[in-house]
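User: Hi! Is it possible to get a structure for several chains at once, not just one? Here's what I have:
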Amino acid sequence: MLIYQRINRILKTATTYNRCRWLYCSTPHQQVSHYSHFTSSSQQVLGCRVISSWFSRAFSSGGPQPQYEEDQVDPFSLVADELSVVANRLRSMVVTEVPKLASAAEYFFKMGVEGKRFRPTVILLMATALNVQISKPASEGVVDLFSSELRMRLQSIAEITEMIHVASLLHDDVLDDADTRRGIGSLNFVMGNKISVLAGDFLLSRACITLASLKNTEVVSLIATAVEHLVTGETMQMSSSAEQRSSMDYYLQKTYYKTASLISNSCKSIALLTGQTAEVALLAYEYGKNLGLAFQLIDDVLDFTGTSSSLGKGSLSDIRHGIVTAPILYAIEEFPELQTVVDRGLDNPENMDLALEYLGKSHGIQRTRELAARHASLASAAIDSLPENDDEDVQRSRRALKELTHIVINRTK
Amino acid sequence: MLIYQRINRILKTATTYNRCRWLYCSTPHQQVSHYSHFTSSSQQVLGCRVISSWFSRAFSSGGPQPQYEEDQVDPFSLVADELSVVANRLRSMVVTEVPKLASAAEYFFKMGVEGKRFRPTVILLMATALNVQISKPASEGVVDLFSSELRMRLQSIAEITEMIHVASLLHDDVLDDADTRRGIGSLNFVMGNKISVLAGDFLLSRACITLASLKNTEVVSLIATAVEHLVTGETMQMSSSAEQRSSMDYYLQKTYYKTASLISNSCKSIALLTGQTAEVALLAYEYGKNLGLAFQLIDDVLDFTGTSSSLGKGSLSDIRHGIVTAPILYAIEEFPELQTVVDRGLDNPENMDLALEYLGKSHGIQRTRELAARHASLASAAIDSLPENDDEDVQRSRRALKELTHIVINRTK
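Assistant: Yes, the chains can be modeled jointly so their relative placement is included. Here is the combined structure:
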């Protein structure tokens, strides 16, 4: 049996198993006992390990890739060559005449520390899914120059998005006084806060210049709005009132701003630059938005569970910093007394243990996963609603985009 | 005699007197003695006081304004009403749904702390100088709607430029750990570094969104390049080698990036948005560039002299922070041994006294003022080279732009 089929079967079993266990636990007591049982299930642990190892590889830029059958697609392999082109162009785009600024700006674009390149992958797949082909080398036939030029414009959106994403990381790391990022020292840790703020500003301005070169002011506006959303989301997180912190609406709005707006507006930009209808542009936007939301919801689960399936094995970094996410919000709905525990501050280990106990006996983790799955389904449905197209590349890219929604909700890191 | 004529005569006398004294002092000894004499001359001191007081008023946003004859223009009064419109729009443009971000973003746009509004003044004057009239109220005749819409687009350039300028101030204050700005606590001092970085990013993205709404990608590119120049200039200043710090070319390049690029590209944007020829766009750019350079050169002089005419009475903040500016660079050309004094560090009071002594016996201050005057002349010449136009408003705005070049080089604060 091929690896992919095996994993698919495991995934299906794990999901069904998981869903059944959670769906039929209605009382807090049942929840606790089932949760304990769930984490000690050897079958489940084995399944998780296999999935975890596979997704680790799927998300890493190097190392062996999983094998796929012909009708299956690995989203990351599908755009691997083009991602290299984008990465090279990114490195050349952030060159400046001032050596220190150049070093700072290219810090996270260097080989080996480019990160998962999740956003460029989505954007390039969306480009093909909307029927903008990568031009074939001249030896394979006549090169369609228009198509090639258009493809380069779409690659620019991937580059711009990545520059903005890295700029936001640089500024976030200054704000959070972070000392590591992508497995190496954060730029502020290595070169200081000043150069990190400046390098972030530089990347934003370079992204804006590149945007202007696309000569489409609607796209400039979309992407600039996404930058504003990144800032708004960050500020909402750091300056919320107690009431806002306990509101699911506020949480989802902040999550959209911080994680989903950039990718959704980038996907929409791809549609606009390729002259699609408003309806298709909206579908592209909906895909990006729902994928982004699903991604963040699972991130919030992983903050509690880590690579294991146990509560409290994650870094717990959000909750320690007073950032209340979906699992706790759902838990508070079931156990309102948890709110006072959270308000007392979870930097106190006793409060933290108590909060995790409440979370464990609640449906918080389960409901967050279910919400993530709903958004993943919506993303998938958006792809299914695109105008029919029989082209093989288009079909393959659409399958890859849908595959990404599964990867996002089933990942363990 | 009207005040303006009196001031003009004083200025003329002071300039001639000053130039003669400096031009005919060839030895260091003569320079020192003449410099002392210059500062003790009661006539000169009186002249300086009158000029200082007048320019203080000219630069302040409130208080009594100087009186002008009919053919004379006060640049700031000429656009005062429109500046209020711009200020109100700016305040409404930085509103967001997150109260803390809104407070931070509007911090320097509030009544009384808007600063000199030098850039918006130049931009609005340039708009009229290129024959884009302010539409008259309907009661005075038929309103030219096209003209009115175009004028609002040009006002947007003033608003965008001011947002970018304030964003750069917010980030600069974080970089420099500054605790005051415009006579009040700096934003980082009052609300913290995090919100200052975010508010700067927010203003940049809001500026970019407003830029996109103008639907002219060449203008987006120009202004985004100016933002990049702000960053490049700041980085050049903080990461220069000893060799670069002693290079006049490096200093002028950095000065262009930090001070002149934004205003020159904004002026050029006005020309582009009004459909001027490439030649006129270049003249507008040249005006802004040379005015900006003259402004900064005088700033560098004032860092040594302050509101008095004596060396060492300024804040000396640049030189204390190891930032070598034109006066010292010229002094090093005459006295190469000053370089070693500077390299030893001027945070040591003995080195500082020695450096000021060298500067006093050199032509450093004089040559910097002369260079500023040359750039002011070039700015003025750019205005004279604009296509002829007999319209009274156009003529008046052009005179005001030229008047600004005098104000810039003769200011004492």
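Residues 1-66 of chain A have pLDDT under 50 and may be disordered. Residues 145-176 of chain A form the longest helix (32 residues).

User: Great, thank you!
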